Amino acid sequence: VVVRRLPIYARALEHLAAASERVISSGRLGALVGVSADQIRKDLSYFGEFGRKGAGYRVDALAATIRGILGLDQERRLAVVGLGRLGRALAAYPGFVDRGFRVVALFDRDPAVVGQEIASLRVLPMESLGEVLAREGVTVGIVAVPAEQAQAVTDLLVASGVRALLNYAPITVATPPSVRVGDVDPVVALQSLAYYLKAGEPSEQAS
Amino acid sequence: VVVRRLPIYARALEHLAAASERVISSGRLGALVGVSADQIRKDLSYFGEFGRKGAGYRVDALAATIRGILGLDQERRLAVVGLGRLGRALAAYPGFVDRGFRVVALFDRDPAVVGQEIASLRVLPMESLGEVLAREGVTVGIVAVPAEQAQAVTDLLVASGVRALLNYAPITVATPPSVRVGDVDPVVALQSLAYYLKAGEPSEQAS
Predict the structure, then answer these.
(1) How far, CA to CA in Å, does B69 sit from each of B24, B39, B103?
(2) How far is CA B124 from CA B54, B78, B121, B129, B134, in A?
(3) Which chain B residues are within 8 Å of A31, Cβ to Cβ?
(4) CB of A153 within 8 A of CB of A84?
(5) A140 confidence band (pLDDT: 50, 70, 90)
């Protein structure tokens, strides 16, 4: 769970660095990311000692440390499978490179899509996936195919050396325990929020 | 945290229902969604009694109950702000309607984008946002604008009655406590995964 918050802290620290801020208190960092100062101190102390009591954190140093903890000091190479609307948007997303990821390969099973150029990359056929991933050193995959293809695509990515993947398909995919999956189905995210919407409404009985 | 897993259970139950399955054990449901049978039973018991010991859950009934818990028995109306690549993909995403959400309004601040038709909706100017959201009964927003515009867009959505939003912009937005935000920055999701990638690699010292 801490590992889910660290990228949020890193993102806030990068915005601060871009605004030429040099030092930040746990209270202010907490306010920026929506957690308490205590939580910030607790999360960071989990990985060692940072800053001095009362002196705040050095923005650059803390950002670098968090990037190190997350393994972002090394660029991760990424493949996108499925070049529908969402896959295209992700393939062309400008926010990856500055933050540790580079899209290096695109795959689709549709012959009409294979060969198209998206964000300076040519879409390749599924048959070449294993060979290209090995050659390009891809360790992270993005699955942006329909639900019924998601497991087969996941299996192929895992067999080709991918060890972490983001799954935008609306289905849970099974992987070996050594492979991490981030479930990023937008509807799942919305449905979790809907629960809280309901809590604020008059109940049907009462209305 | 349970509330984050319920949509995953609902999604799996819908796939089972589509495959004409009528009854499922907590063990098999757990295997489908990647959690233990105990966790399934514990999560569901939090909301009452379901199924009978040893008899499994009725797929349809459990799906309906979870939809009720999440407030999905009522369709939520959605606005997308920012019709860049990602916003367009979300505006046209076919997976919302069956699962409780309907995109009813699109907004962009770029005069060249306003007036375009995307997924049968015309993109509207930001100035009309308040009026349109009130008229259309929009309670959920998707923020798909660049980081530097995300807070202003969020403030406008909140002022116009939105009580839950998905934020795709790479920045934490501040909202009143009554408004829920899902942070769905793809890079944050990737960075959390990267931590686990690193754990499987030989350390620099050792290599």
Answers:
(1) 19, 18, 22
(2) 54, 14, 9, 8, 14
(3) 174
(4) no
(5) very high
Residues 159-188 of A with CB under 8 A from B: 163-166, 170-172, 174, 178, 180-188
Amino acid at A75: E
Residue-level pLDDT at B202: 56
Pairing type for strands B76-81 and B180-183 reads unpaired
Q: What is the pLDDT of residue A200?
A: 65
pTM (2 decimals)? 0.91
Structure-derived torsion over alpha carbons of residues B15, B17, B19, B24, reported in degrees to the nearest 10? 90
How many beta-carbon pairs under 8 angstroms link A with B?
214
Contacts 24+ apart (CB under 8 A), B49-52: none
User: How many Å separate Cα B1 from the centre of its chain?
Assistant: 14
Long-range contacts, stretch A129-134, CB < 8 angstroms, 24+ apart: A129/A79, A129/A81, A129/A105, A129/A156, A129/A157, A129/A160, A130/A156, A130/A159, A130/A160, A132/A79, A132/A105, A132/A107, A133/A79, A133/A105, A133/A157, A133/A160, A133/A161, A133/A162, A134/A160, A134/A161
Of residues B184, B188, B9, the one with CA closest to residue B89: B184
**ipTM attached to this prediction:** 0.90
The amino acid present at B15, given as its one-letter code, is H
pLDDT exceeds cutoff 50 at A118:
yes
Q: Give every CB contact of residue B140 below 8 A, 6+ residues apart in sequence.
A: A190, A193, A194, A197, B76, B77, B78, B79, B101, B162, B163, B164, B165, B166
B34/A174 Cβ within 8 A: yes
AA letter at B115: G
DSSP state letter for A100: T
* Two tokens, residue B114: 């306003």
CA distances from A99 to A64, A70, A95, A186 (A): 12, 11, 7, 22
Which segments of chain B have a pLDDT < 50? 204-207
Please name the amino acid found at residue B156. Answer: L
For residue B184, the surrounding DSSP H or E stretch is: none
Quick count: other Cβ atoms within 10 Å of Cβ A207? 6
pLDDT at A52: 66
CA dist., res. A177 & res. A123, Å (int): 30
Residue A195 · residue B69 · CB < 8 Å = yes
Q: B71 to chain A: which residues are within 8 Å by CB?
A: 194-195, 197-198, 201
Q: Are A189 and A205 in contact (CB under 8 A)?
A: no
Per-residue pLDDT tens for A102-111?
Answer: 999 999 999 9
